[in-house]
Write a structure and sequence with these properties.
Largest sheet: 6 strands, antiparallel
Radius of gyration: 28 Å
Strand content: 15-25%
Number of helices: 5
Shape: elongated
Order of helices and strands: HEEEEEEEEEEHHHH
Strand order of the largest sheet: 5-6-7-8-9-10
Length: 272
C-alpha cells in the first residue's frame, strides 16, 4: 500500500515540476511580448505625431513661394510656370458655343488629413433622411473616423492615441472613443458629450489625480466636428442641404481648444 502511494506521490511531483517549468516559460514569453507591444505603441505614437507635424507644416506652406538661399523659386513666381493649369477643350468651328471651354475640377480631399490637433481618416456620409444624425448645430456623418492625442484614461501622465468613430446603430448614432490598444476601455454612447464625459470621469478617478480638474465636456470638439475644415467638407456632401433640423454649425471658441478637457499639455499643468 505504501509503495502504491509513493508512486502516486512521485508522479504528482513530476507533474508539478513540469507545470512549474511550463508556467515559467509562458511567463517569460508574456513578458517578452509585453515589452515588444510597449515599444510598438511608442513607435506608433511617435509616427502619428510626426505625421501630424509634417502634414501641418506642408499645409502651412501652401500658397507661399518657396525660398531657397534667399531667392524665390521661379516656379512659384508670378511669371513662372503655374501648376494645375485649367484644361482647355477646343470645339468645332461650326458650333455656336465658344471655341474654348475651361473645365475646373474640384480636387478630392486626401486622407488622412491633418486638422491641427485632430487627424481625420474618413469623413463618412451624411444621413439626411434620419433626424437623429443631425441637430440644429451639428451634423453627425456615419462612418466618420478621426484620431487625436490626449491623456490615457488610466494614467493621465502618459499620452494616448484615441480613435473617434460615429456609427449607425439601428437608426441611432453611436459615438465611440477608443484608446489605443485598449478594447476593454472603449467609451461609447448616443452622443459625443456622453463619450467625452465618461473619458473625463475616468481620468478624474485615476489614482494619480489628486486634485479636482476643471473639466468642461466638449464632445463634438473632441471628435473634431467643430473644425472649420471638417465643416467645409461636410458642406460639399449632397445630403448637407437636406438636413431639415440643421440651421448652422455652432461657432467654435478658439480658447476652448487649450482647456484641460482637450489639451494634453494643459492637463499636465494641473497634474504637476
Amino acid at each position: 500500500m505504501n509503495l502504491k502511494y509513493k508512486r502516486r506521490y512521485e508522479s504528482l511531483k513530476r507533474s508539478v515540476k513540469s507545470y512549474l517549468l511550463e508556467n515559467a516559460a509562458l511567463t517569460d514569453e508574456i513578458c517578452r511580448l509585453q515589452a515588444e507591444l510597449s515599444v510598438t505603441r511608442s513607435q506608433r505614437l511617435y509616427l502619428i505625431e510626426r505625421l501630424m507635424f509634417h502634414e501641418g507644416l506642408e499645409k502651412s506652406n501652401n500658397g507661399r513661394p518657396n525660398v531657397s538661399n534667399g531667392k524665390v523659386d521661379p516656379t512659384d513666381s508670378p511669371g513662372g510656370p503655374k501648376k494645375n493649369k485649367p484644361v482647355v477643350l477646343s470645339k468645332k468651328p461650326s458650333e455656336d458655343k465658344p471655341k474654348n471651354v475651361t473645365i475646373i475640377r474640384k480636387k478630392k480631399p486626401t486622407f488622412p488629413m491633418n486638422l491641427n490637433n485632430v487627424l481625420l481618416h474618413s469623413l463618412g456620409e451624411i444621413i439626411s433622411v434620419n433626424p437623429n444624425f443631425h441637430t440644429d448645430s451639428w451634423i453627425y456623418p456615419v462612418g466618420y473616423v478621426a484620431t487625436r492625442i490626449y491623456a490615457h484614461p488610466k494614467d493621465p501622465r502618459k499620452k494616448c492615441v484615441f480613435t473617434c468613430k460615429i456609427l449607425n446603430n439601428a437608426g441611432i448614432p453611436q459615438f465611440q472613443i477608443i484608446p489605443d490598444n485598449d478594447l476593454d476601455g472603449v467609451f461609447f454612447g448616443e452622443s459625443a458629450n456622453t463619450c467625452h464625459m465618461e473619458l473625463l470621469n475616468s481620468i478624474q478617478r485615476s489614482p494619480s489625480v489628486k486634485v479636482k480638474i476643471p473639466f468642461d465636456v466638449q464632445g463634438e470638439v473632441f471628435f473634431g466636428l467643430s473644425n472649420q475644415k471638417t465643416q467645409s467638407l461636410l458642406m460639399m456632401d449632397p445630403g448637407y442641404h437636406l438636413c431639415t433640423n440643421f440651421k448652422g454649425f455652432a461657432v467654435q471658441n478658439v480658447q476652448s481648444l487649450n482647456s484641460a478637457s482637450l489639451s494634453y499639455e494643459t492637463l499636465q499643468g494641473f497634474l504637476s
